[in-house]
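Standup notes
- HV: blocked on the assembly model, inputs below
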Amino acid sequence: ETGVTQTPRHLVMGMTNKKSLKCEQHLGHNAMYWYKQSAKKPLELMFVYNFKEQTENNSVPSRFSPECPNSSHLFLHLHTLQPEDSALYLCASSQDPGTDTQYFGPGTRLTVL
Amino acid sequence: SQQGEEDPQALSIQEGENATMNCSYKTSINNLQWYRQNSGRGLVHLILIRSNEREKHSGRLRVTLDTSKKSSSLLITASRAADTASYFCATASEANQGGKLIFGQGTELSVKP
């Protein structure tokens, strides 16, 4: 479980706040992902980064802004969120994008008031 | 459209019994992966089966793949209370733009001591 870390583990924010989620992988992988997991819904892929370059933006609203400064770190900047954005946000990494096994972090439980 | 769909959505068994979960998908795949998620935590990769494989074992886990029926099953033998979790199948296909994994909605397994 320590291969991919996420901070914070829990976050409560108001609709006008700005916050950031952080993900770090210690596995030497080239690809990193953000997923959103809401109750009773399948995991939704949000963003994919390969060698720091964004290769997938799955029609995510602009109030979510990803940043990947290097292959080991991934951020998700949040601003003016809505209550329906409350969910578990999961970061994952894999050796390469595509069909490889993905390794997940523990997630950040986000509540938007 | 959703690629992987698990069945049943929920399963409750006694410790020591076997648990079988099924996954169906719609398009051709490179591989199919099974993941486990304890409540409110990240996903943990269990097993990957390639499209040219029919069966794979890992400890108490047995996965089968039938590409003609576009289905897979996960069998957990001699279940334990610690196996209580949600189990997800994910399909990987080169045809998916960016090679993303597509997850099903999961099966919630409850193993009663």
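- HV (later): unblocked. Chain A touches chain B at residues 1, 4, 6, 40-43, 45, 48, 55-56, 88, 90, 92, 97-107, 109 (CB under 8 Å). The two ends of chain A are 30 Å apart (CA to CA).
- Next: hand off to the docking folks.
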